[in-house]
Amino acid sequence: MTTRADVVRVARSYLLTRWHHMGRLPSVGLDCAGVPVCIARELGLVAPDFDTPAYTKAPDGHSMIEWADKYMGPRVTAERMKPGHMLVARIEVDPQHIGIIGDYLHGGLSLIHAASRSDGTGCVIETRLVFTPRLRFVAAYQFPGVDDG
Hints:
This protein is of the alpha+beta class and 149 residues long. It is built from three helices and ten strands. It has one domain (2-147): endopeptidase domain like (from Nostoc punctiforme) (endopeptidase fold (from Nostoc punctiforme)). Strands 4-9-5-6-7-8 form a six-stranded antiparallel sheet. The protein has a two-stranded parallel ribbon with strand order 1-10. Strands 2-3 form a two-stranded antiparallel sheet.
């Protein structure tokens, strides 16, 4: 059975992968949606061709959360988030960022995510998870087929 620890292990194997819009090749190029898509594929939780619908770099305010509600497991509250869950967050206005919850080295939670910079560069990183006025919780999800125990 696949566990949340397996999700975190695979997510961490993607660290330092270059950021690439719509990227779906671990160690070559990923964007934030590519991280959970590739994890689900790698762990055999979905079909090998599973993906998100095509999207632009500018969020539309609803597509990401609709996709997560349709294809991810049950929603989890912010208070019940655990390592191995997927987070959807708002940066400024619209839901536009996805990451994997990890266990932070110095206590608390971390976020494993593909972070882009304004110049188009970036990579998959792991940072301490801190919600701020700029980064706000929208929803968290359990991966389908993953033991949440």
